[in-house]
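Entry type: protein chain
Record version: 2
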Amino acid sequence: MTASANHDQAELWNGRSGSVWVDERVALDRMFAPLASFLVEKASHVAKGLPSGCVLDVGCGTGGTTLALADMLGERWQVTGVDISAPMIAEARSRAAHARKSVAFLRADAQTHALPGAQFDLVVSRLGVMFFDDPVAAFANLLTSARRGASLHALAWRSPAENPFMTVAERAAAPMLDAMPARVPGAPGQFGFADAARVERILGDAGWRDVVLSPVQFDCALALADLRTYASRLGPVGLALTRLATHERERVIDKVVDAFAPFVSGNDVRFAAACWHLSARAPA
């Protein structure tokens, strides 16, 4: 992997957070399946006009969306996933090998890595583009890898207020935890692309054309049996809990799990994922 400007993100995703996403990838892939399906549909429209081509999946994680794209596009298309996380890329490669899919996975920082020039007809991302410390540089770098007229389709979270499910754990845990990190608007992280006008400027300044941000919403579900693990291992609460003694940790987790009650429906935990659909084109 080339040297990364995104030191904090590299440390996060090559450490505990990356390992947790590997451990919980079945539950997380199921939870975000509607988002992957959305991107697969967008890719199918691009593929209708091209008999073959290349796709880059940015922030591909453990490869769920990447493999879904490969399934839909078939052998005439080369699909590549890139992610900064070594454990997640290792899991993605293992999944591809098990499925006997000729999908390439690259462990690299998409902001700084020297990607192949003018190779990709389509660049996609499922919640993977909000983490760059210099998003203009990152999208400019992605543009260098895109062929003339190539399409960009990415999904990013809208605001925390529009995604209450995503902040249940930290709101419930905050009174019992010291030094819970505050979310800084526009900072690299889950809600880093909440401001649509800012994101439009980022893409435009990076050189992309026909930039459009459209609000989209997805009905997502997590198995109730996976809720306790989800609530206690992922996100800022998951990191904060590692600093507590066992009895304190269990007390906080009980409180957090109870706070998800409004989202429980039978054997599932259901919520709406409010996202932006970022679409753009490389100059012709």
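Comment: The two ends are 31 Å apart (CA to CA).
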